[in-house]
Design brief:
With 242 residues, the chain is α/β, with parallel strands linked by helices. The chain has nine helices and ten strands.
Length: 242
Protein backbone atom coordinates (compact mmCIF):
# COMPACT_ATOMS: atom_id res chain seq x y z
CA UNK A 1 0.00 0.00 0.00
CA UNK A 2 2.78 2.43 0.97
CA UNK A 3 6.41 2.26 -0.06
CA UNK A 4 9.35 4.51 0.77
CA UNK A 5 12.61 4.07 -1.13
CA UNK A 6 15.77 5.75 0.16
CA UNK A 7 13.81 8.79 1.34
CA UNK A 8 15.73 11.70 2.81
CA UNK A 9 15.00 15.27 3.83
CA UNK A 10 17.64 17.89 4.50
CA UNK A 11 17.19 21.24 6.23
CA UNK A 12 20.29 23.19 5.35
CA UNK A 13 23.23 21.00 6.31
CA UNK A 14 21.14 18.81 8.64
CA UNK A 15 19.58 15.57 7.46
CA UNK A 16 16.39 15.15 9.51
CA UNK A 17 15.58 11.91 7.64
CA UNK A 18 18.10 9.95 5.61
CA UNK A 19 17.97 6.78 3.50
CA UNK A 20 14.65 5.58 4.93
CA UNK A 21 13.14 2.58 3.18
CA UNK A 22 10.20 0.45 4.27
CA UNK A 23 6.78 -0.63 3.07
CA UNK A 24 3.33 -1.01 4.60
CA UNK A 25 0.98 -3.74 3.44
CA UNK A 26 -2.83 -3.44 3.35
CA UNK A 27 -4.52 -4.17 6.71
CA UNK A 28 -1.27 -3.78 8.65
CA UNK A 29 -0.68 -1.73 11.77
CA UNK A 30 2.91 -0.54 11.53
CA UNK A 31 4.40 1.38 14.42
CA UNK A 32 7.25 3.86 14.19
CA UNK A 33 9.23 4.34 17.39
CA UNK A 34 12.40 6.12 18.40
CA UNK A 35 13.71 8.90 20.64
CA UNK A 36 12.75 12.54 20.28
CA UNK A 37 14.52 14.05 17.29
CA UNK A 38 14.73 10.72 15.47
CA UNK A 39 12.86 12.10 12.45
CA UNK A 40 9.47 10.48 13.02
CA UNK A 41 7.33 13.61 12.64
CA UNK A 42 9.37 14.74 9.63
CA UNK A 43 8.69 11.35 8.08
CA UNK A 44 4.95 11.81 8.59
CA UNK A 45 5.12 15.26 7.01
CA UNK A 46 6.88 13.74 3.99
CA UNK A 47 4.24 11.04 3.54
CA UNK A 48 1.34 13.48 4.01
CA UNK A 49 2.76 15.98 1.52
CA UNK A 50 3.40 18.78 4.02
CA UNK A 51 7.04 18.81 2.84
CA UNK A 52 8.81 17.11 -0.06
CA UNK A 53 11.79 14.75 0.16
CA UNK A 54 15.22 16.03 -0.81
CA UNK A 55 15.92 12.57 -2.21
CA UNK A 56 14.08 9.28 -2.63
CA UNK A 57 10.60 8.19 -3.70
CA UNK A 58 7.27 7.67 -1.95
CA UNK A 59 4.44 5.67 -3.53
CA UNK A 60 0.91 5.07 -2.27
CA UNK A 61 -1.38 2.59 -4.03
CA UNK A 62 0.85 2.76 -7.13
CA UNK A 63 0.63 6.57 -7.18
CA UNK A 64 3.84 8.57 -6.95
CA UNK A 65 3.28 11.04 -4.09
CA UNK A 66 6.87 12.21 -3.69
CA UNK A 67 5.99 15.74 -4.79
CA UNK A 68 2.25 15.66 -4.08
CA UNK A 69 0.47 18.37 -2.10
CA UNK A 70 -1.40 17.52 1.12
CA UNK A 71 -4.84 17.82 -0.50
CA UNK A 72 -3.73 15.48 -3.30
CA UNK A 73 -2.48 12.88 -0.82
CA UNK A 74 -5.73 13.20 1.15
CA UNK A 75 -7.83 12.66 -1.98
CA UNK A 76 -6.00 9.38 -2.57
CA UNK A 77 -7.17 8.14 0.84
CA UNK A 78 -4.54 9.19 3.39
CA UNK A 79 -5.62 10.88 6.63
CA UNK A 80 -3.46 12.01 9.54
CA UNK A 81 -3.69 13.26 13.08
CA UNK A 82 -1.50 15.93 14.66
CA UNK A 83 0.25 15.91 18.03
CA UNK A 84 -1.45 19.21 18.91
CA UNK A 85 -5.15 19.01 17.99
CA UNK A 86 -6.65 22.13 16.45
CA UNK A 87 -10.41 21.58 16.11
CA UNK A 88 -12.92 24.27 15.27
CA UNK A 89 -13.48 25.36 18.85
CA UNK A 90 -16.64 27.32 18.08
CA UNK A 91 -18.32 24.10 16.89
CA UNK A 92 -19.54 21.03 18.75
CA UNK A 93 -17.78 17.69 18.69
CA UNK A 94 -20.43 16.33 16.30
CA UNK A 95 -20.04 19.29 13.94
CA UNK A 96 -16.25 18.91 13.88
CA UNK A 97 -16.51 15.25 12.91
CA UNK A 98 -19.28 15.96 10.39
CA UNK A 99 -17.05 18.48 8.60
CA UNK A 100 -14.52 15.72 7.97
CA UNK A 101 -17.25 13.34 6.78
CA UNK A 102 -18.47 15.95 4.29
CA UNK A 103 -15.22 15.50 2.37
CA UNK A 104 -16.74 12.33 0.89
CA UNK A 105 -20.46 12.74 1.56
CA UNK A 106 -22.41 15.71 0.25
CA UNK A 107 -25.52 15.47 2.42
CA UNK A 108 -25.58 16.50 6.09
CA UNK A 109 -27.71 13.46 6.92
CA UNK A 110 -25.09 11.02 5.63
CA UNK A 111 -22.25 13.01 7.20
CA UNK A 112 -24.08 12.92 10.54
CA UNK A 113 -24.44 9.13 10.24
CA UNK A 114 -20.70 8.69 9.57
CA UNK A 115 -19.90 11.07 12.44
CA UNK A 116 -22.07 9.08 14.84
CA UNK A 117 -20.39 5.80 13.88
CA UNK A 118 -16.95 7.30 14.22
CA UNK A 119 -17.65 8.93 17.59
CA UNK A 120 -19.00 5.61 18.86
CA UNK A 121 -15.83 3.79 17.76
CA UNK A 122 -13.53 6.29 19.47
CA UNK A 123 -15.65 6.59 22.61
CA UNK A 124 -16.82 10.20 22.40
CA UNK A 125 -20.47 9.69 21.39
CA UNK A 126 -21.55 11.10 24.77
CA UNK A 127 -19.66 14.32 23.97
CA UNK A 128 -21.41 14.89 20.63
CA UNK A 129 -23.14 18.11 21.67
CA UNK A 130 -20.28 19.48 23.78
CA UNK A 131 -18.29 22.44 22.54
CA UNK A 132 -14.83 21.50 21.29
CA UNK A 133 -13.51 24.37 23.41
CA UNK A 134 -14.66 22.58 26.59
CA UNK A 135 -12.78 19.32 26.03
CA UNK A 136 -9.89 17.99 28.09
CA UNK A 137 -6.54 17.17 26.47
CA UNK A 138 -7.44 13.49 26.28
CA UNK A 139 -10.84 14.23 24.76
CA UNK A 140 -9.24 16.51 22.18
CA UNK A 141 -6.92 13.67 21.19
CA UNK A 142 -9.91 11.40 20.71
CA UNK A 143 -11.67 14.06 18.65
CA UNK A 144 -8.55 14.39 16.49
CA UNK A 145 -8.65 10.67 15.70
CA UNK A 146 -12.39 10.78 15.03
CA UNK A 147 -11.98 13.68 12.60
CA UNK A 148 -9.34 11.76 10.66
CA UNK A 149 -11.38 8.55 10.58
CA UNK A 150 -14.50 10.40 9.39
CA UNK A 151 -12.75 11.06 6.07
CA UNK A 152 -12.91 7.26 5.57
CA UNK A 153 -9.22 6.82 4.71
CA UNK A 154 -7.56 3.67 3.48
CA UNK A 155 -4.34 4.70 5.28
CA UNK A 156 -4.40 6.46 8.66
CA UNK A 157 -1.30 8.20 10.03
CA UNK A 158 -1.51 8.41 13.82
CA UNK A 159 0.92 10.81 15.53
CA UNK A 160 1.25 10.16 19.28
CA UNK A 161 -2.47 9.78 19.93
CA UNK A 162 -1.97 8.26 23.39
CA UNK A 163 -0.33 11.35 24.90
CA UNK A 164 -2.63 12.94 27.46
CA UNK A 165 -4.96 9.95 27.77
CA UNK A 166 -5.74 8.28 31.10
CA UNK A 167 -4.99 4.52 31.47
CA UNK A 168 -8.65 3.57 30.78
CA UNK A 169 -8.70 5.88 27.75
CA UNK A 170 -5.47 4.30 26.49
CA UNK A 171 -7.07 0.85 26.66
CA UNK A 172 -10.13 2.12 24.77
CA UNK A 173 -7.94 3.69 22.09
CA UNK A 174 -5.85 0.53 21.78
CA UNK A 175 -9.00 -1.49 21.11
CA UNK A 176 -10.21 1.05 18.56
CA UNK A 177 -6.89 1.07 16.68
CA UNK A 178 -6.66 -2.73 16.75
CA UNK A 179 -10.09 -2.93 15.08
CA UNK A 180 -9.21 -0.66 12.15
CA UNK A 181 -7.75 -3.31 9.77
CA UNK A 182 -11.07 -5.19 10.00
CA UNK A 183 -12.70 -1.97 8.81
CA UNK A 184 -10.40 -1.74 5.79
CA UNK A 185 -8.06 0.85 7.29
CA UNK A 186 -4.29 0.41 7.32
CA UNK A 187 -2.40 2.22 10.09
CA UNK A 188 1.02 3.84 10.31
CA UNK A 189 1.48 4.92 13.93
CA UNK A 190 4.09 7.02 15.74
CA UNK A 191 3.90 6.51 19.50
CA UNK A 192 5.93 6.86 22.71
CA UNK A 193 3.58 4.82 24.92
CA UNK A 194 5.40 1.53 24.50
CA UNK A 195 2.84 -0.59 26.31
CA UNK A 196 0.23 0.40 23.72
CA UNK A 197 2.21 0.18 20.51
CA UNK A 198 3.98 -3.05 21.48
CA UNK A 199 0.64 -4.71 22.16
CA UNK A 200 -1.24 -3.48 19.07
CA UNK A 201 1.24 -3.00 16.21
CA UNK A 202 1.89 -5.93 13.88
CA UNK A 203 5.34 -4.65 12.99
CA UNK A 204 7.67 -1.88 14.14
CA UNK A 205 10.08 0.45 12.35
CA UNK A 206 12.69 1.95 14.68
CA UNK A 207 14.30 5.29 13.85
CA UNK A 208 17.37 6.91 15.38
CA UNK A 209 19.10 10.07 14.20
CA UNK A 210 17.01 10.14 11.03
CA UNK A 211 17.71 6.57 9.95
CA UNK A 212 15.94 3.23 10.28
CA UNK A 213 17.98 1.03 12.61
CA UNK A 214 15.59 -1.94 12.87
CA UNK A 215 12.36 -3.40 11.54
CA UNK A 216 10.36 -6.40 12.67
CA UNK A 217 7.69 -7.82 15.01
CA UNK A 218 7.42 -6.11 18.42
CA UNK A 219 8.76 -9.12 20.34
CA UNK A 220 11.83 -9.23 18.12
CA UNK A 221 12.39 -5.47 18.28
CA UNK A 222 12.19 -5.51 22.10
CA UNK A 223 15.23 -7.80 22.18
CA UNK A 224 17.30 -5.99 19.53
CA UNK A 225 20.53 -4.67 21.15
CA UNK A 226 20.64 -1.63 18.84
CA UNK A 227 17.07 -0.65 19.77
CA UNK A 228 17.67 -1.20 23.47
CA UNK A 229 20.76 0.98 23.37
CA UNK A 230 19.24 3.75 21.25
CA UNK A 231 15.74 3.94 22.72
CA UNK A 232 14.14 1.30 24.93
CA UNK A 233 16.88 0.89 27.54
CA UNK A 234 17.47 -2.07 29.82
CA UNK A 235 14.73 -0.93 32.23
CA UNK A 236 12.07 -1.48 29.58
CA UNK A 237 13.40 -4.93 28.69
CA UNK A 238 13.38 -6.07 32.32
CA UNK A 239 9.90 -4.62 32.90
CA UNK A 240 8.54 -6.36 29.78
CA UNK A 241 9.74 -9.79 30.83
CA UNK A 242 7.15 -12.01 32.56
Amino acid sequence: MLRLDAVGRRFGALWAVRDVSFSVRPAEIVGIIGPNGAGKSTLFNLIAGAISPSIGDIRFLDHAITKAKPYQVARLGVARTFQIPKPFKQLTVRENVMLSALRRHRTPRRADCIAAQTMELIGIRQLADASAASLTVGQLKKLEVARALATEPSLLLLDEVMAGLTPPEIKEMMAAIASLPERGITVLWVEHVMMAIMAVAHRLVVMHQGRVIAQGPPAEIAQDPAVIGAYLGEKYVHAARP
